[in-house]
Structure formats: structure tokens, C-alpha cells
Amino acid sequence: MQTQPRASHFIAGAYVEDESGEAFASVYPATGEAIARLHAATPAIVEQALAAADAARAEWRAMTGVERGRILRRAADIIRERNRDLSLLETMDTGKPLQETLVADAASGADALEYFGSVAAGLKGEHVQLGADFAYAIREPLGLCVGIGAWNYPIQIACWKAAPALACGNTMVFKPSETTPLTALKLAEILTEAGLPEGVFNVVQGFGEVGAALVEDPRVAKVSLTGSVPTGRKVYASAAAGMKHVTMELGGKSPIVIFDDADLEDAVAGAINGNFYSSGQICSNGTRLFVQSGIYDAFVARLAERLKSAVIGDPMDESTNFGPMVSEQQREIALRYVEKGVIEGAQLVIGGSALDQPGFYMCPAIFADVTDEMTIAREEIFGPVASVLKFETEEEAIARANATEFGLAAGVFTRDLARGHRVAAAFEAGTCWINTYNLTPIEMPFGGVKASGVGRENAAAAIEHYSQLKAVYVGMGPVEAPF
Ligand code: NAD
Predict the structure, then answer these.
(1) Partner of 422 at 20 to 30 A CA spacing, among 23, 350, 363, 465?
(2) Which residues of the chain carry a pLDDT beneath 50?
């Protein structure tokens, strides 16, 4: 398949190249081979993209919500028609098994475009009657938005940002992760084909400094970042200097609390989905598995047993359900954490080593007897490494689950639904699951608290983060004055 894009950037409805930008490659993680060569944006490209997005604002916001929504929904249809090709490209770019990308990546992006395409027509402000006078509030777009993506869900992240932004009448310059630059360009192509006016959605490539240049520009009204906490701190600070709106979708170290009365198979399945999908490279993963003492041994044994049936291998083979990690560097990070876990006294039950074959493969790992102060229980690994911790009481589990700087997600497994709701209410996390894990439908708000982020993506909540209210007071007269 054709993996080399026509050019590195997509600006004002067309592919654009500037070969003086730093060269970099997209690498297929299953083999380590370069599948595309691109150039990072130069200052001239950044300027071209920002100018195009700025110039497109007036026409786009002047369109009705129905018109904007129709274009987004058309793009959703095109994505679904091309789901297989887009999934193949996403698998080449990320190494994630085709079995996953066929259902979770472009498909989720299409859901976002369809959802916000439908919401666009219904956007409204407010009316407040004040006696004879009245006030109304106009819901306005923020203006030029910048989206910056991580590498684990490239087209999904691009769509989750573009869809609500564009539905509200904003324009966007999107910078994908330098590790996975390819599918955001396809999204730009598809939006253009669906009728999006030129300049409304633009893609520029590059490393952190390109992102930083976008964030600093005074024409930019809002920045939405998906990335790590350290990057989030830098981007938030830069945006604050310009008094810009932000959405920060950052990292996590989320807990899953499994009580004695839980359905064991469901809890184990939740732990698998919450630790090993996408080779563990998911922000909301429940990497701290707090298991009540009565079910602890059975849980660890069953989790290890089911992990043995993981099909690790060629991501293009649709029976593969565990692929390589995205890069050599990311695998090294995960392997170092496994070493730390062993040194600090956790019990490595299964996995944790690199596979001796081409590509960035490692065997998924489970640690038992993990304690709260161990490094593997405190830091985000962003790899297939699960930690199982033992607890006795509900109060203890909640306190320990919340004892972290992060607050992205949390889960609880129990047959006692009153307890399920009580524990969910007590979690310090933006997204919680009861008796399931890691489902993120577009209809549900998604985002973190504490260091895991600011703002929400998806659902009606996202509209609040891509629009603002302008209040207009209407005096019906006469005007009173003190003198
Ligand atoms: P990262 O923070 O290294 O990079 C994220 C993006 O920010 C990249 O596009 C990068 O080029 C850009 N960037 C880096 N420095 C920048 C700067 N100074 N200014 C502007 N942009 C800059 O993250 P990553 O390694 O690509 O992704 C993994 C991280 O993302 C993990 O921490 C994971 O938890 C998080 N993540 C969060 C979510 C979520 O929705 N909460 C989803 C996916 C990933």
C-alpha cells in the first residue's frame, strides 16, 4: 500500500512541502522499516498554516450549523467507506494490530464527526427575560484553534479535536505526533473532499518546537493537547501567557478496584482491556489493579492464564491481538520499568521481556505483590505492564486509589451496585467505569482531573470548550441615570 504522503503538510486544501524542514521518517513498528519520509514544518510553513486558518475563519463561522454539520457528517461517511485503508495505514504508522484499528481508530473518528456534525445544527445560546428588558447570549466560536496529538490514537485524536472545533465554527491547525504523522493528512484530504472550505482544517508536521510555535502565536485562541503531563505543563504555561483557552488530555496511572464479590471473568477481562489493548499504550489504562484479598490469588492466576493466550505477532494478521510497541524508545522505557519492578521487590508473574525478533515487541507483563510506593505503582509506564496490589477494605482501597498526582480514569468491579456507585463517586478521576473498563463512546464526556488534565472531550461537554458566550443586554428604555 502507498504509505508515503504526497507531501508533509496539508494547508488551505492542498498538500504543501518545504524540504528545508528537518527530515524524519515514519517507521513500521513491526519491522523497524521506514514507511514514509517527511519534513518538519519550517517557520514559513507554520506561518502559512496559521494564516490560512485565520483567513478561513470568517467564511466558516458565517455558515449555518446545518451546513457545517453536513460537511462533517459527509466526512464521517467517507471515513467509514475507507475504514479498511485507513486502518491499514494506522497499523503501519503505529504497529497496533489491524484487529484493533479496524474497530477503534478511524471508526471512532467517524463517530466524532457524525456526532458533532449532528450537534452543529442545534448549537444555541441563551435568552434571559429581565422584566421589560432582556439579555441574550450568542454562542460564538473561539476562533483559530491548535490541536496537538499523541502517537497512540493518531486519527482518533485528530477527529476528537477537529469535530467539535469545526462544528462550533472554529478553524484548526493540527500537529500530529512526529512518531505517527500519516493519518491526520488523510483526515485533511477527506474533509476537503467532503466540502470543507480551504484553510478550515490544516495539518503541519514536526517535533515539539513546531507545537510550541503554534501555541505561542497571538492569532491562536485555543490549544487542545493530547500528550504527557510534562508537555502539558509547558503548553498550558505558554497558553496562559497569551490567556488562551486550553483542553489538556494528559497521562494517568489509573486504578481498577476489584472486590471479592466481583465476577472474576469480567474483572479479568476489564484488566486485560485496561492494560494490554494497544500494547498498553493507552492513557486511561487501569495499571494499578487493587484486588481484595479474598479473590486476589484467583485473580492473579486467571489473569496470567488468559494472558498466555494472547496472539502476539504480525499486526496485519487479523488474528493477532497484541502487536509491537510504537518505537524502540517506548519499548526501552517499558523494559526499564520492568527491571525496576523486579529490583524493588515486586513478583514478576509473567512476561516483561523483549521478543527476539525484528520489530519493537515485548511480552505483556503482570507484577503481583506490588506496593504503593514502588516506582511501577506510581509512574505512568505507557506500556504493557500491569501491577496487582492487595487490599482489605473499601475505605482503604479508595484512599490508596486516590493517592496519586493523576486523575484520568478509574474502575470498580463488584456485584454490589450500591458499592459500585459509592466507589465511583469517591474516585478522584474524570472518567469512571463500573463493571467494565476503557469504553469511551463519543456520547460520554472524557477527560481528567488533577495532573491528568483540564477540560473534556466528546459529548455535549466538548461544545463548552470550543465556544464562548457573548452576552447582550437589551434595554427597552427609558435609561435612568443618577444625575
Ligand atoms: P508527548 O507529550 O511527548 O507529545 C505529545 C505531543 O506534544 C506531540 O505531538 C509532541 O510533538 C508535542 N509536543 C512536545 N513538546 C511540545 C511543546 N513544548 N509544545 C507543544 N507541543 C509539544 O506525548 P506522547 O509521547 O506523544 O504521548 C504519550 C502521552 O500522551 C502519555 O502520557 C499518555 O498518557 C498521553 N495521552 C493522553 C491521552 C488523553 O486523552 N488523556 C490520550 C493519549 C495519550
Answers:
(1) 465
(2) none
